[in-house]
Amino acid sequence: MSFGTDERLHKSLGSKLLNLIKENSVPIMFIIICAISIPLSGFSISYLINEIITRMGRNIFLILSLLIPIMAGMGLNFGMTLGAMAGQIALIFVSDWQIWGIPGIVLAMIVSIPISILLGLLCGKILNNAKGREMITSYIISFFTNGLYQLVVLYMMGPIIPIAHSSIKLPRGYGIRNTVSLLNMRQSLDNLLAVKIGTVKIPVLTFLIIGLLCLFIIWFRKTKLGQDMRAVGQDMNVARDAGIKVERTRLISIVMSTVLASFGMIIYLQNMGNIATYSSHSQIGMFCIAALLVGGASVDKATIGNVFLGVILFHTMFIVAPSAGAAITGDSMIGEYFRVFVSYGVITIALIMYETKKRKMKSREGKLLELAQREEEKAN
Amino acid sequence: MTNNYNPLLEMRNIRKDFFGNQVLTDINFTLNSGEILGLVGENGAGKSTLMKILFGMDIIKETGGYDGDVLIDGKKVEFNTPFDALEAGIGMVHQEFSLIPGFTVSENILLNREPKNPNFASELFGDRLDTLDYDQMEARAEAAIDKMGFSIDRKMIITNLPVGHRQFTEIARELSKEQLKLLILDEPTAVLTEKEAETLLQSIRNMAQNGIAVIFITHRLHEVLDVCDNVLVMRDGYVVKNVPAKETNVAEVTKMMVGRQVDTAASGSARDFSNSRNAMTIKKLWVDMPGETVRNVSLVVKEGEILGIGGLAGQGKLGIPNGVMGLYDAGGEVEFYDEPIPLNNPRKCLDASIAFVSEDRRGVGLLLDESLEWNIVFPAMQVQNRFLKKYLSGWITWRDEKSITNITNHYIEKLAIKCTSSKQKSRELSGGNQQKVCLAKAFSLNPKFLFVSEPTRGIDVGAKALVLDALKKFNRENGVTIVMISSELEELRQICDRIAIVSGGKIAGILPAEEPSEAFGMLMVSQVK
Amino acid sequence: MNEQITSERRMYRGAVQNAIKTFGIPRLIIAAFLLTLFIAAPLVGADFATQLTNTINRFSWNAILVLAMVPMIHSGCGLNFGLPLGIISGLLGGTLSIEFGFTGAMSFFMAIIIATPFAIIFGAAYGWLLNKIKGGEMMIATYVGFSSVSFMCIMWLLLPYKSPNMVWGLSGNGLRTTISVEGFYDKVLANFLQINLGKLSIPLGTLLFFALIAFLMWAFLHTKTGTSMTAVGSNPAFAKAAGVNVDKVRLLSVLLSTWLGAVGILVYQQGFGFIQLYMAPFYMALPAVSAILIGGASVNKASIANVVIGTFLFQGIVTMTPTVMNSMIHMDMSEVIRIIVSNGMILYALTRKMEG
Q1: Do the chains contact at C140 and A137, CB–CB below 8 Å?
Q2: Which residues, in sequence order, are bridge partners of residue A350?
């Protein structure tokens, strides 16, 4: 009964179009924002394209890691930060071992796997105890784990976990410096096989890796595990009755997301060329989630297309907002704050839309009943 | 069939009690392959408990298991989980849908039994990474649908499917299980249109011809007689009769369902109020209460009477008080002493001096984490500004703890509520005492009119009598008009003056309480949807 | 004989286990941790009186912000992660009071007066929103807080403030990130009736002010409306059936929480001495949330005692750990401990099964 839909309630073409706009209101709003700010910012098109391509290579892998928990009905995984931390820890080790370039990146990915699996298990276990409020819980988990991360990186690295090179250690002898340079690794992934078209550099290898992940996700949807995740995501009880191990499936989805996020973070940081040890990870979750939502995803549904569209729109806004803001108000800070506001605002709107949609489904039944009774009366 | 004759299913001397409350006594029956057994009985007759035992549901084990033997093909079996039952070839279609809303029909039919192909990754990481074989899936779904004999669009998403087709999807899911030997259908026609129901009956016949045994539970008696080989009538946890369908008729089955050996009959105290004033007039009421939908109900309640509302579960009797009191979406007209009462606004009803004891004690009736005092005085405090001290010419209204304790103790004594003190949390009380707290809450409002919904549900016999007595006394001594909704017809006949029977969301008829049970029974099944 | 003893012992053990269960293991650990800190403090050479003074001071600054959690928890809106909205109202009140030229105690009084309409407007909008999305309050509250803080970042730059005490010196417009309240309401409450006993100094005025507000809160919960608020939080279906307008009560609770947030930040500023603008209110909800949880509240139950105990424990840990840790192992791990403790506590509360 609860999911009774009826076409009688809305059917005209006009309202269909309106629905289409309503459902895609966030991307449409962003297209408008971008269309207004691009000319104002005064950036050249080739500069913009170059920047966006760079940022696509840098961010898409990370954002793709969000798709799997959404599939499993666990909402936006604010706990992807855990993966980012795992990636950073792995990179710190690798740079201490002085293994650079592609081998360094590959090694970092390998090292990050056990760490991110461990963190993913922790996160997944906790989330299984907080069904129905996964998002707020995963959000607090990211803060909590940040404390653990600092404990390890700031205090245990040096005295307990051996760190050989003083170049990455704080002058006091333990703990990692605020910035760890990855100069010898910088963009080695992006530059291998890179193609230049005009002034635009295309990091072919990075895009190939992203492409592979996309293929993996598409393939994964068609596996038994993927099917189970979709089932669990839509109705946990039905899935459990059918014999699907609900808790385990949810756990796996979070672990997969965390591992993918740690890979994503390594790709992100090799592009940046340095690690801001205590801050790189803290905002990454928010920006990735905002980008995904800008691409038209919602809390319970996200596609690869949403990821690509989202990255392009969100980062275009991100690049042009400060200069556009300066052009309008004469103060570049306004644009800076504006883009932060927009990131948070878009997440807020997506969350509100998700919750109101859930409630609307309920209130429709009554109208149908009234309608049926009136029809019956007419017939009599 | 070379071996000795062994029925597919035999249930022998099945007994079950819930904490001393006997719900099944000495149930015996057998069922052969290809046979269709109709299982009928009032709510609470024990049908669903019996099926839960057969299907190995957790609740049976959690409440101490059962006595007696279940034999499949002559061998004794014991199912610890539904999965054991499935393994043994028993399938069940429950009343509530168990479908994934965003999946296609095929995906739902083969949920968690999808055909798969191994691949490189699954060799490494285990078979959950097998790829699904969609062609095979469609083929198997199609085969199952064919078996059923009713075609549904395999590729449709469940959300876009008519309700009836969802039911067929569930049946097809059971049929797609190769080991299926016995299918239990729990009120499968409840959500179907007339035509769909007919198709379903036809497909049940098909299944039987293919050698599948079917247990068919329904309130639509003509369907049972139409399709079943045998009819098993249950009442109060006993098998009343196991009779070939050909040898009986609707009237007889109804009589067996509701009739008691010793007809306790109405207490003889039923009074005639036809010349009294109209207390409440309900016109064209619809209520959207999930599972208890009310359609187009019109009803007049006379001043001073006790009106009973009975009917089978899910037919809408609970929707009437909940709709009038504004707890669920409702429409239509309600007049109270010729004054219209707006719907969907509980406050207006309370202001008009109408009180309600909800059937959902723990969900609506009580503040489980607060004291008895709060539970009993809260509505009176909010609606009538009683139990408050006023300061600064009414600007500050302070809880008057002393008078609150007094009134609570008054009711604790009057209704014999067992508790440690008036400060005890209501969560810690037994069901019967919780129910008394709910009554006290309603009484403390000093209402002119009282709705009581399922006042004896889930409480023991002693408490039952106390609760019914309290209601009767409240009616006689305070002249309060009472509308009591109950699934137990006998209970209604004991204390009511008139009884209205709800069937299919509508009032099927109103009779004086002295009428024989059979008359009410006929009304109950008259318009079952 | 023996049997009797063992059964008695078992009973005793059962009672202890029950007590631990209701009190909560994390809370026990935190209380024990603070106790160790207090014992360890003199041993490692930290001055006890100074420590206690610091703790009490910080308690007096923060207590009302923690109290702001109470109304929304009572009405079932959950933990008020949207506290920044109230803080923003307070910031507007404070800055406008200074802008209008009020000084001294008057500026504090006027700050509260001016903050009130903002708190009402923001609170009403916020409450209306939370009524639309029942069940998803906490996550949305968090992001409403974040969005409003980042929106106000733009506003602090754009609003036409002129007071030279507050705007950037060079450009002459846009508020500074940190504004001193010296000469305005710096320590107005703390200096009132301050008690000095040797090294121990107690800001009695601030404590009294908190006591007054806490008393009003307590009194409110004993009125008819307050009773309905508790009932709505305890079981909204019960309250609805008893004729209470659930949405209205929830809205009122959000208004109260928001207003308390506004007053709370002003009290915080008078103690701390500075108004912090821009991103500062961003994470201010988390310490308040974890403080009340440490004090024994759950996602849907909270009392004034929870506020007092929780704020004291939380601020105790925040002030004591740096000094004690530093002198013990020469490492300042206090920040890390604070993060782990406070967020761990919130996680603990979120993963408790909600009854009813």
Answers
A1: no
A2: none
| One domain, residues B347 and B269 | yes
**Interchain contact, C228 vs B365, CB within 8 Å:** no
Of B446, B463, B483, which one is at a domain's C-terminal end?
Answer: B446
Regarding whether B398 and B370 lie in a shared domain, the answer is: yes
C-beta of residue B99 within 8 angstroms of C-beta of residue B115? no
Kindly indicate the confidence band of residue A310, based on its pLDDT and cuts at 50, 70 and 90: very high
Does residue B202 form part of some domain?
Answer: yes
Residue A12, pLDDT > 70, answer no
Q: Give chain B's contact residues with A (Cβ, < 8 Å).
A: 82-83, 98-103, 107, 111-112, 114, 116, 121-122, 127-132, 134, 158-160, 163, 284, 286, 288, 290-291, 293, 295-296, 329, 331
DSSP H helix total and E strand total for chain C: 14, 4
- The confidence score (pLDDT) of residue C33 equals 81
Enumerate neighbours of B (3 or more CB pairs within 8 A). A, C
Using DSSP's 3-state secondary structure scheme, residue B289 falls into: coil
The domain that holds B85 is classified in CATH as: 3.40.50.300
B39 falls within a domain:
yes
Q: Is residue B349 part of a domain?
A: yes
Task: Check CB contact of A131 with chain B, cutoff 8 Å.
Answer: no
CB contact under 8 A, C133 and A359: yes
Same domain, B432 and B494: no
B391 lies in the same domain as B518: no
Which residues of A fall within a CB distance of 8 Å from B98? 237-238, 241-242
Is-contact A61 A120, C-beta < 8 A?
no
pLDDT at residue A141 is higher than 50: yes
If 0-12 CB within 10 Å is exposed, 13-18 middle and 19+ buried, where does residue C177 land?
Answer: middle
Between positions 265 and 294 of C, the ones with CB within 8 A of B are none
Domain for residue B78, yes or no?
Answer: yes
Q: How many CB atoms lie within 10 A of CB B149?
A: 17
pLDDT single digits (tens) C187-226: 888 888 888 887 788 888 899 999 999 999 999 999 999 9
d(CA B379, CA B360): 17
User: In which domain, by residue range, is B284 found?
Assistant: 264-353+447-529
Span A224-238, pLDDT tens digits: 999 999 999 999 989
> pLDDT digit string (tens) for B176-202?
888 889 999 988 877 777 788 888 888
| Count of domains for chain B | 4
Q: Which residue of B has its CA nearest to A364?
A: B288
Q: Which band of pLDDT confidence, cut at 50, 70 and 90, is reported for residue A164? A: confident
B107 to chain A: nearest residue by CA?
A227
Tens of pLDDT, residues C297-329:
888 888 898 899 889 888 888 888 877 777 777
Q: How far apart are CA A290 and CA A30, in angstroms?
A: 12
Beta carbons of B101 and A222 less than 8 Å apart? no
User: Which residue ranges in chain B fall short of pLDDT 70?
Assistant: 1-4, 259-268, 527-529
Q: Which residues numbered 213-242 in A keep a CB inside 8 Å of some CB on B?
A: 219, 222-225, 227-228, 230-231, 234-235, 237-239, 241-242
| Residue contact C222–B346, C-beta within 8 A | no
Ranges under pLDDT 70 in chain C = 1-24, 330-331, 353-356
* The pLDDT of residue A80 is above 70: yes
Same domain, B289 and B340: yes
Interface touch A355/C347, C-beta < 8 Å: no
Q: Are C232 and C71 in contact (CB under 8 A)?
A: no
For residue C232, give the chain B residue with the closest CA. Answer: B367
Backbone angles phi, psi at C19, to 5 degrees: -60, -45
Which of B209, B231, B258 corresponds to the end of one domain?
A: B258
Tell me the C-alpha to C-alpha distance, in Å, between residue A242 and each of A132, A197, B84, C53, C98: 21, 53, 12, 61, 65
> If you measure CA to CA, which chain C residue comes closest to B396?
C223
Least confident stretch, A74-83, A103-112, B53-62: B53-62
Chain B to chain C, count of Cβ pairs less than 8 Å apart? 76
Q: Give the domain C25-350 fold.
A: ABC transporter involved in vitamin B12 uptake, BtuC (1.10.3470)
